[in-house]
Amino acid sequence: MHHADRSSEPTPPPPPSAPTATSSIRGLFERVLPSFVIPTRTSEAEGIIRELFSLADIQIGGTRRGDIQVKDQRFYERTLRGASLGFGEAYMDEWWETDALDVTIDKVMRANLKQKISGSWKLKALTAKALLLNLQSKQRSGASVEAHYDIGNDLYTRMLDERMVYTCGYWKTAKTLQEAQDHKLDLVARKVGLKPGMRVLDMGCGWGGMASWAAEKYGCKVLGVSLSKDQVALGNELWGPKGKKLDVELKLMDYRDVTGTFDRVISIGMMEHVGPKNHRTMMECINARLADDGVALVHTIANNRSLRHGTPWVEKYIFPNAVAPSMAQIGRALEGLFVLEDLHNIGPDYDPTLMAWWDNFDRTYSEISHKYDRRFYLMWKFYLLAAAGASRSRDGQLYQVVLTKTGRQQPDYARQV
Predict the structure, then answer these.
(1) In angstroms, rounded to a whole number, what is the distance separating the alpha carbons of residues 148 and 318?
(2) According to DSSP H, which parts of 203-305 are helical?
(3) What spatial distance separates the first Cα and last Cα of the chain, rounded to whole Å?
(4) Are residues 350 and 275 both part of a single domain?
(5) Within 13 Å of residue 91, how many CA atoms lie on the same side as its CB?
(6) Residue 203 pLDDT greater than 60, yes or no
């Protein structure tokens, strides 16, 4: 559409701009506290983060183990806004570092910073003001979620023990990772009372560590199921006709699709992945597959309280959609289906397990660095050492529950182990 030339017309003064949320808040502070100087967003966030970390006995710029060195000033605002996700991603981007990440996370978890914010009017006010004065949208990472178990057996064969056991070891008398995992597998075997000739179902079998132990040490016939093609392929290679020729078969199959009856059902490290909506389904499947006089064992990471989702950073980068159950959730899932014969918490044993995995990964990383870049290395370091710190602070547990059907005589092991 043609418009007349108005270049010769005087330009009217611009209308007064509507006050922005930030200017309104700034004006409010200036009226209420005329001498109050509004800090910049970065300095405001820095003040809050420094005070929060001081409550956890962590010094920013300090020299003690677990203290933090900030390398990019954007760290403060990213951590304040993104909480655990922002904190972890800032570490992956090398915005901060520490000489002992496990110590840092242990201190953070023990300090229960979220509760301290809620209980302190000063910190609540500072945090609210910082958020009000910074109204841009939250920083979002465009990185896609990495699959966990199929990222490459070359990583896991270096990080884990000889049987490729990727769950918490049992360190009561163990001095090495191999001993801890062997002791854990045998603890499970004794708890369910494995005997030669028994048919055993291993739900969520991983690479077949437990399956191989049951077959090799106790003469059992084992079916393992997993949804990881890499785990099943390598496991069958290790324990099947091409490997040790054990009576072990690993199948790429959902646990809900298994048919048949088994003398023993074992699940090590799967319940964390099925989600709260499927806890009951999992227990029903165990019940359906277990012989009436059988024994089942579920080994699972556990939260101290019931949650519907996991930690955002862990969900995004490590275990998508995974959330560990609480004791209450486990109890509800098995109610009316099983007798709880034994509950054993070996949660503190996860700390040395994770530290051993980290030592193995760090020591052999140069062999696979061409495939896993620097950012992956930092992601994996944050995952393993943060998990170790969380375990050390007792933020999470590791439960082994032994289950039988109503009417079965209590297993002998309950009076022996």
Answers:
(1) 6
(2) 209-218, 229-239, 271-274, 279-289
(3) 89
(4) yes
(5) 25
(6) yes
Residue 318 falls within a domain, yes or no?
yes
**372 exposed, middle or buried (CB, 10 Å; 0-12, 13-18, 19+)?**
middle
pLDDT band at 147 (very low <50, low <70, confident <90, very high): very low
- C-alpha distances (whole Å) from 7 to each of 2, 3, 308 are 14, 11, 63
Look at residues 132, 165, 192 and tell me which one is the last residue of a structural domain.
Answer: 132
The one-character DSSP state at 137 is P
pLDDT (mean) for 360-364: 98
For residues 343 and 128, give the distance between their C-alpha atoms in angstroms, rounded to a whole number: 43
**Cα Rg of the chain (Å, integer):** 27
CA dist 280 and 269 (Å) reads 16
Is the alpha carbon torsion for 361, 378, 315, 105 positive or negative? positive
Best CA proximity match to 281, nearest among 200, 193, 203? 203
Over residues 76-97, the pLDDT tens digits come to 989 888 888 899 999 999 999 9
Token pair belonging to 225: 């199921």
User: 152 and 167 in contact (C-beta within 8 Å)?
Assistant: no
Collapsed DSSP state (helix, strand, coil) of residue 383: helix
Q: What is the pTM of this model?
A: 0.83
Task: Give the tokens for residue 4.
Answer: 């007349």
Number of domains comprising the chain: 2
Distances in whole angstroms, Cα of residue 5 to Cα of each of 2, 9, 10, 14, 65:
9, 9, 12, 20, 71
Characterize the bridge pairing of strands 248-252 and 221-226: parallel
C-alpha torsion angle, residues 411, 191, 302, 120 (rounded to 10):
80
**Structural domain of 123:** 37-132
Residue keyed to tokens 């006010």: 125
Q: Are residues 126 and 212 in the same domain?
A: no
Question: Which tokens belong to 62?
Answer: 């300090």
Do residues 303 and 365 share a domain? yes
Encoding tokens for residue 381? 């370091």
